[in-house]
Amino acid sequence: PTPGTFRLSVLDNGVTSNEFWTILGAADDLSWIAFHYAGAATTVGQRYLGGLLCTSDGSLPDASQLDEIWPVFQRAGIEPWELFVVNNDP
Asked: Cα–Cα–Cα angle for 77, 83, 75, nearest 5°?
């Protein structure tokens, strides 16, 4: 195992997806953390990858921190314009 990496397997409607997650970076105070994931559901011929920017309250960090965050994603081949905000409020 490599520190900062995780292998996950998910069964969804009879299809198994195997994913590899990597911690790309985090703020010193852990106010944000960036992840990259790559997965495949080989039985249905599907591959995917993406990234997550996670914060404790789900809001975007201050603009001043985004200048530090975007290069973290870009090193993993993810451009800022490929990300979008997700609202999970009920």
From this structure: 20
Token duo for residue 47? 């591959």
The 10s digit of each residue's pLDDT in 37-90 is 999 998 888 999 999 999 988 888 988 899 999 999 999 999 999 988 888 788
| Tokens matching residue 58 | 């789900």
- Burial grade of 88 (CB within 10 A; 0-12, 13-18, 19 or more): exposed
Instruction: Quote the Cα angle for 10-35-3, to 5°.
Output: 85
CB 31 within 8 A of CB 61: yes
Is residue 41 within 8 Å of residue 58, measured between CB atoms? no
